Sequence to fold (290 residues):
Amino acid sequence: MIELSHDQLTFSFPDVHPDARLVIEFQRTLRIPHGGGDMPRLPSLGPYPLYSIADYAHRVPTHWSSHGGAMLPMYQSEAMWLSFRPAYSVAHQAFYPFAVKIGVGGVDAVGGQRWSDGIHQWPQDFLVISHQSWLGGYQSGSDGVRQFVAMPLGFGYLPDDSPSSPHRFGRLQIVVYPMAAEVFGMRFPRDAWLRHLENILAPPALQQSEHGVLSPGADALERQSIEEGLFPLADWDVLSPGSYTLLLANSLHWCAITGGPPPMAPARVVSNSKRGTYRGDGFAPLLADI
Fold:
């Protein structure tokens, strides 16, 4: 069961396990110049609003209606990252694990390969949620990780964005697989709270600093990474996935569909510097919002 409510997508699998529930939010942030390196976890400017495509069925393109799902208004100066919140099982003292596959423009966002149905281990083409809590971009071959953005077609910001492509308009495909109930019970038995208590009471590990002095590990800027091999493929219930389509509409597309501007103003960040005022919606003339 998939529910769109309060700008959140909730995937529930009551037939698998009462705690098999995953909430996904789409966080608003600024688009940064692409440097081809790792993707840092950027600050959230709040969740994006989500609108059911069915509510605009008489105005959206035909191929949008055929996919169903929801659309998300996004200024061209902005980007998005995905936030995952699995349900916490009190009885098992653990977050319920999920395998989540994300497709963008016909490409697997995790591995950067052409999209294919199902999940695969080598190379891994899915996230393991319970350890992974966010995804800031998609793999783009030798270009590294690129942000999820809503840009005009033909500029190469999204894979396969030619005017004739069936994956136009920043189409995001989300497929969620819960862990099989019997596997969850085996891997996270009900006495897990004892081990959890031991971890809490254990002294924190100390790390050797560059000056040779033992000190607690310092927090660093979190960067996108995909943990591999946490669970074998047999752990996932591949017979009952939840699938949803999200379409990213830039301000021009949104105006054409709804007849009005996006429901929020462009995100702006102002900072004083010797060069003057920096605005978060002005990375380049191409990114100017219409």
The chain has a mean pLDDT of 77. The radius of gyration is 21 Å. The longest strand covers residues 21-30.
